[in-house]
Amino acid sequence: MKKILIADDSKQITTILSSYAKKEGFEPVIAFDGQEALDKFEANKKEIVMLLLDVMMPKLDGFEVCRQIRAKSMVPIIMVTARGEDYDRIMGLDTGADDYVVKPFSANEVMARIRAILRRLPAQEEETQTNSGNIYKYDNLVVNLDNYTVTIGGEDVPLTKKEIELVWTLAKNNTKVFSRDNLLDALWGYDYYGDSRTVDSHIKRLRAKLDKYPHEAWDIKTIWGVGYRFEVK
Predict the structure, then answer these.
(1) Tens digit of pLDDT for each residue in 21-68?
(2) Is residue 21 within 8 Å of residue 28, measured between CB atoms?
């Protein structure tokens, strides 16, 4: 059975989320602190398809757990924060999380976000297995979806999973201008509860990382009033 790791020091929250996860057909794996979350992930990593990580946990916080798991696995991660401040959201996304929810939250909303993320995975996995076209190259840029890496001039660029998917989507469709809603639908799914600022925040952080490397022949360009596109110069 597919498992969801739920890490939160609140027994009330883990009980509620476990109940809803079971209704969705998942087996919940519960952890009450960051170290326990890492240990249980290692013990169940072949079956775990999703992690829900509370930010504020004993021993290791959710950000550190996310960093350590993301260093060896691309399993989807949703961060849970008690505050809706930009700092927490940016930290979660920068450490490799796929999404975040703010307490207090609706368990139904959390399940909808899980469904939205997992709905996109089978097609990506099937493409990786059957299609050799999972590598995009232009000038000094190489985007590889087989191992989720981006290099510029042969140097690895440390990007999050979502940032890699963003580069891939824009670069592979470099004749198209994507509106913010286009990118939300393509990368987060129709069930996503966020807004266009999510796209803008990702683009801003992505550009800051890419700009550390020379890329005179291409860029991610803003089309004012419309959205974004990958510009081949």
Answers:
(1) 999 999 999 999 999 999 999 999 889 999 999 999 999 999 999 989
(2) yes
